[in-house]
């Protein structure tokens, strides 16, 4: 394999380059329009800044049609979002904003609570599930260590951009991104469905041949019976799936980011200490990423020199510099989207893991595992900042925990019965498409409102208090 970025599937490298060109071109056009709108008089811009910062709105937790509808949507979004490894923030934020009535910032904070609850229950479920084809953990800790630091760094960048970017521009950029990732995932699901159909036909053919009486089959009846393979208990499966070294490193990154975020939030915006705590997050994330990337690169080079074609981890790509830089870019992009939207970054990470050759079950388990760290970090930070009402947060977390268990159990059973792991990819695509539609609707509604009220639609001040 050459040094270009090539993923499984037909013309993987070309499709990947086309997607990057599509994303950058569409984003450039959207940002250029915003820069054009930036030429508004400073007095009107200052007045509009106040209008753009919506006041805090916290509806009471009570039983009515709004809370009932939000519960149903939240349950289904959590169940299928965690199965696909995308979280569901693109559904939760508009739901909490439009149906329940929370302001945008509070809706984003509560969305993180829901993602954390669903991710926690899904991780607990996955720890008691075997890998579909190997004697290895169903969670790929190498990929988690590679993406989690960059994802958290991207969330910091996304939160900063959410202060500067107008809401309509955030909606446009996210819809562009979601349409691209959902279409790629959907076509990949179709390819996998066709491959599974061929494999099922071959298995049925072999079963028919095995049932046909022949001399060889008659002789096989007299062969001694082999003892049945040992079935692992729940504790044995959990011990197999746990890798304490990787978990400790991930926790170290989590605590480092949490302390830096708390110190940053305790300082004045745009003060020297504020920028110091912001900048310190870069060496923390980059050092862990570089450590894991160097490990994958050295092992990949060693195996190539030996002529060994076995994959280092679940990803079936050659870990060269272009692939590693691309993974770093996608991790930052996923985190940035998570910070802008209030999601866990799974809308990029889930499809990316599928693109680099990870089987759907492992991609879902790994993406959900990484999202647990990123979403819980945001929840703890939002808690200290008082960004969400505790009763509503506890209720939504409970709904998401139950939904995460149900979604994993139901879909895993469905995959086992139908023998089609591509179902997970289709669920991922449907959740992303639904998120794109809801975000698009909210963005259009917000834009119409701002135009009618003559609000400023350009970039806002980052240091505004």
From TrEMBL:
Domain of life according to the entry: Eukaryota
Entry keyword Nuclease: no
Protein's name in the database: Sulfite exporter TauE/SafE family protein
Entry keyword set: Membrane, Transmembrane, Transmembrane helix
UniProt subcellular location: Membrane
Topology in membrane: Multi-pass membrane protein
Gene Ontology cellular-component terms listed: Cul4A-RING E3 ubiquitin ligase complex; membrane
GO terms under biological process: protein ubiquitination
Organism ancestry: Eukaryota, Viridiplantae, Streptophyta, Embryophyta, Tracheophyta
Protein family membership: Belongs to the 4-toluene sulfonate uptake permease (TSUP) (TC 2.A.102) family.
InterPro entries with a match to the protein in the record: TM_pro_TauE-like
Entry's transmembrane regions: 20-37, 68-95, 167-187, 246-263, 275-294, 324-350, 362-385, 392-411, 423-444
Keyword Transmembrane helix found: yes
Organism: Platanthera zijinensis
